[in-house]
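Worked example

This section walks through a single chain of length 209. The input is the sequence exactly as stored; nothing has been trimmed or padded.
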Amino acid sequence: MKLDVSVLRYMSREEFRVLTAVEMGMKNHEIVPTTLICRISNMKRGLAFKALKLLHKHKLVTHDAKKYDGYKLNYAGYDYLALKTFCLRNTVSGVGTQIGVGKESDIFSVINEDEEELCLKLHRLGRISFRAIKRKRDYLKHRKNASWMYMSRLAALKEYSFMKALYDHGFPVPTPIDHSRHAIVMSLVKGYSLCTVRHIEHVEEVYLK
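Given that input, the structure is written out below as tokens.
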């Protein structure tokens, strides 16, 4: 999935306030009623509607009026909320190109304020080819149902926790830097994909490492 951050720097506080309200409303609603969004954001109806219109225009939320008028967050909006948090924490100051893609995630290069290149991993559970995860993973524990975004958040938290534990005990893993929602920021490890390597010298040494 493409990560287009061109709109991020121009978004107002009100738009992020409403976007956060949609996220909060989705804890109990698949489609968050527009009236509830206004109430959670504590904004006047006109301002909230204007922000929702812009968010929908930039494809950060999806509008649904089948049963009632409401909106739901999509992964693009979730990406923006995570990136906004990283920016406020001075973890990320710029987003580069996509450097990897998998069944569960997308990987991008990012930089911090010191222009150090880092790695951003965005968990995206729920892709068509990998929907058996609700049966095969223990993210839900005792919960019967949960959204894919919530499961992506749990997956990111679990990965970050394991990575930090391994790093703290001296294992050769990327340096865990920060996490927010479904996103993890870690150090960028330079290397090659094994599928592109045709010949390896000192096979035993590489295997042991």
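What to look for: The beta strands are 32-33, 61-64, 70-73, 94-101, 105-111, 117-123, 176-180, 183-187.
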